[in-house]
Structures are given as structure tokens and as C-alpha cells.
Specification:
The chain is mainly α. The protein has one domain: Na+/H+ antiporter like fold (Up-down Bundle). It has 19 helices and no strands. The protein is globular. Its main location: membrane.
């Protein structure tokens, strides 16, 4: 906006591909964060809370765009399908911080919110792909009508098949199991997104990416991996650290502040906030029978107001598609620019506010679960629990507690497990020290009781 960087012209080809790469990474993360066990238990709740609020927000945004921004109905619905998506980039990190501290863990609220966010994003991206295919496709009317069922069934089918393939490739005991599984999911995601675009069924790709990651995670958990300690998920978290600033940077650079219409901006701001409040109230209203109290319902509803990832990835796509058409009209360019402008506004208005509200209200609205200090084998008793409190880091294998969160690094996905390759003298020494301390303490206690 100050003229130092120009991303227009031929460089738009590069930025378009970078957006797709970022979309694959964040969708894989969303699929890996969905707990298969919890999903089976509360899948009805997940589907209800994932589809109804999204449909309400999508419809209201479409109505506002039609009557306030004078967009045609198809363009309005396209905009609604984008703005209705929840941002995993905002929701997931905030919920991880709350979960590591024990907030809402008992009722599985973090799992519920992350799972719904994944379903929400999948529906948004699939809806956008279907609508854009109908709008910009030159195919026959019959093929356009078949877009919706084919995209949904094809996306789900590809996801299940590719996730099942990831169960066997590579073998679980392979020395390079982590990097190969990472490449399998990333390659499958690229195949789904770029392949669906080539066959003109764009809505199937993102849906296939989410369910491929979810299916693979389900099988990997059955083979012994833990959902919260998945090295493939850590790898994609590292990838997202790289692509997040790229995605939001090129999206923000495409917005020309001097070209913004104050009237359109005011309408967009009012519509986004009003619709967000209505979505929150709708979520609270339909969350009956889900074993959540009023505070938890409010927190769940607030956590889904953030917009960022899908809006940044898909907001400029319509404009790119229109500009690549030699027979484009000025009206189509204007409509596409309005769509991009409202998407950018939704990011600016809701992403920071949503992150703040999740972090602040989570500690006040959710119940905190205290650390479990019960011994694993039942031999330490209350005295052992006290020792765990004093030096939990050295004899952590005696206790069950919440994991400490840390910033992921490449060391977390190293190919070779160093602990298995060397004899940890310090660990043995710490174990001996802990055993001696426990023995001395028990002797002292027995002596006191005898005395």
C-alpha cells in the first residue's frame, strides 16, 4: 500500500499457487486435530453445531450482500460460503493453550470445537467450490447440477481411501515412518486440491484433504500413536509457521486501502458484526441436550466467530478467476472485488477479537481440571503424590499429569529416537535417586508411626 512491494502482474501466478499450498496445510491440520474417538461419541452434536450455525451465517451474509451491496444472488451466496467459515489458525492454538492447562477437558470441549471447525471449513470450501464451478463453468446444465453430490461423495470417498492407504504406507515399523506419513498426507492433499481443479470439481478437493487426514489419524491412533502427541501433526504445525505469514501477507498486499469505498466498508463492518452476534445466539440456542451448561455454551459459540484462514485463501480466488477470463465484464470485476474486500474486513474485524475472547473467557467460562497426581501402580500412596509435587520432572513416570505445551521444532519430528539409541545415565541416576528418596521417606514415616 505504500508502494514498496508490487505483487500484481505475473507474480499473481505464484501467489495463487502459494494460497493452495497453505490451504492444504491448514486443512490437513484441521483433520489431524479431530479426535476420532470423541467424534464417534458426539458426532451428532458435531454435525448439528457444525452445519446449522454455518448455514445461518452463510444465509444472512448472502441476504446482506444482495440487498445492501447489490450483489447478484449467486455472488452473494458465494460470499456467504466464504465468510461463514471458522478459522483453525485462530481457534486451534488458543484452544491448545487452554487444554494444556486443563480447561474444558472433562467434557471434551476443545475436541468438540476443533472438530466442528474442521467440518465448518470443509463445508465452506466445498460450498465455495461447487458454487464457483457453477458460476464460472462452461459445462452443460446437467453437469452443473451434478456438481454438489459429486463433490461431496467424491471428496469423502477420496479422503477415506487415501487415509486407509496411509495406514499401510509406510509400514508402522519403518524407520522413516514419520517423514513418509507426512509426505503421504501432503502429497494426497496436493493431489486432491489440484486434481479436483483440473477435472472442474473444485469442491471435492478440500473435503478430501480434511477426511484423508482424519481417516489416517484414526488408523494411526489404533496403531499406538496418541492424538495429542502426533509427530505428523507437529510437522504440519511447523509448515504452517512458514506458510501463515505468506498467506496473510499476500492477501493483505492485494488490498488497496486508497481504493476502499467508505460506504461499502461501513456496510461490511455492520453486516459482519450483526451476523456474528446472530450466529453466537443461534449456537447457544441449538446447543440443547449436549450436556453443556450455559457458560460452556457461550464459550463454544464465541470460539467460532473468528475468520481468517479460509477467507484469506478463497477471498481473492473469484477475482483471479474473473481476471483470467478474456470475456470478463466490468460488473464481474466489481463483484469479485467486493467479495475480496468483505473477506478482508471479516479477517480484520473478527480474528484478533476472537483470539482475545477465547483466551480471556476460556479461563472464566470453562471448568478447570486439576492435575492428576494419582500413582500409576498404586504403590506410592499419598507420600508418593507429595514427592511428585516436589519433583515431578524427575519421576514423571510415576504420575499422570497434563503435558506441558512447547513450541514445536524440527527436533520433535526427528527420524531416530535418540532415547532408544543411547543409554541415559542421567535418567537412571534420577530413577535411583527417586527410589532412594521414597525408601528413606517411607522408613522415616514407619519409624514415626512405631514411635
Amino acid at each position: 500500500n505504500v508502494g514498496w512491494v508490487n505483487l500484481d502482474g505475473e507474480f499473481q501466478i505464484v501467489t495463487a499457487e502459494l494460497r493452495k499450498l497453505a490451504l492444504v496445510i491448514i486443512l490437513v491440520r484441521a483433520g489431524l486435530e479431530m479426535d476420532p474417538t470423541a467424534f464417534k461419541k458426539i458426532y451428532k452434536t458435531i454435525l448439528k453445531l457444525g452445519l446449522i450455525p454455518w448455514f445461518v451465517e452463510c444465509s444472512l451474509i448472502a441476504v446482506c450482500a444482495r440487498f445492501f451491496l447489490q450483489l447478484p444472488w449467486m455472488w452473494s451466496i458465494l460470499l456467504g460460503s466464504i465468510v461463514g467459515a471458522v478459522s483453525p489458525a485462530v481457534v486451534v492454538p488458543c484452544l491448545f493453550r487452554l487444554r494444556t492447562k486443563g480447561y474444558g477437558v472433562v467434557k471434551g470441549i476443545p475436541t468438540l470445537i476443533i472438530a466442528v471447525a474442521g467440518i465448518d471449513d470443509a463445508v465452506s470450501v466445498a460450498g465455495f467450490g461447487i458454487i464457483s464451478s457453477i458460476m464460472f463453468s462452461t459445462q452443460s446444465l446437467g453437469l452443473q447440477i451434478a456438481q454438489a453430490p459429486v463433490c461431496i461423495i467424491g471428496g469423502l470417498g477420496f479422503g477415506v481411501v487415501w487415509g486407509f492407504l496411509c495406514k499401510y504406507v509406510p509400514e508402522p515399523g519403518d524407520a522413516y515412518v514419520v517423514p513418509i506419513r507426512t509426505l503421504m498426507l501432503f502429497g494426497g492433499g496436493l493431489l486432491a486440491v489440484f486434481g479436483s481443479e483440473e477435472i472442474h470439481f473444485e469442491g471435492a478437493g478440500p473435503l478430501g484433504v480434511v477426511f484423508a487426514a482424519f481417516t489416517a489419524s484414526y488408523f494411526w491412533c489404533g496403531q499406538g500413536w496418541e492424538l495429542e502427541d502426533n509427530p505428523v501433526s507437529t510437522a504440519f504445525e511447523i509448515f504452517w509457521m512458514i506458510f501463515e505469514p505468506i498467506l496473510f501477507g499476500i492477501t493483505g498486499a492485494s488490498v488497496k486501502i486508497a481504493e476502499l469505498d467508505p460506504h461499502i466498508v461501513s456496510i461490511g463492518v455492520g453486516s459482519i458484526y450483526v451476523v456474528a452476534v446472530i450466529r453466537i445466539l443461534t449456537t447457544v440456542a441449538i446447543a440443547f441436550g449436549d450436556k453443556l451448561n450455559v457458560k460452556e455454551k457461550i464459550f463454544v459459540a464465541i470460539s467460532w466467530m473468528s475468520k481468517a484462514t479460509v477467507q484469506a485463501a478463497l477471498g481473492p480466488v473469484a477475482l483471479k478467476t474473473v481476471m483470467s477470463n478474456e470475456n470478463r465484464t466490468e460488473e464481474e470485476v466489481h463483484y469479485a472485488e467486493l467479495v475480496k474486500m468483505v473477506c478482508i474486513l471479516s479477517i480484520i474485524l473478527t480474528a484478533p477479537l476472537g483470539a482475545i475472547l477465547i483466551s480471556v473467557t476460556g479461563t472464566k467460562l470453562l471448568k478447570k481440571t486439576k492435575q492428576q497426581l494419582e500413582p500409576m501402580d498404586g504403590t506410592l500412596g499419598a507420600l508418593g503424590a507429595q514427592i511428585c509435587l516436589v519433583d515431578q520432572s524427575r519421576i514423571a513416570h510415576y504420575c499422570i499429569g497434563w503435558r506441558r505445551s512447547h513450541r514445536p521444532s524440527l527436533h520433535d519430528i526427528s527420524i531416530i529416537d535418540e532415547e532408544e539409541e543411547r543409554e541415559d545415565i542421567e535418567g537412571i541416576a534420577d530413577e535411583d535417586t527417586a527410589a532412594n528418596t521414597l525408601s528413606n521417606a517411607q522408613t522415616a514415616t514407619a519409624f514415626t508411626i512405631t514411635k
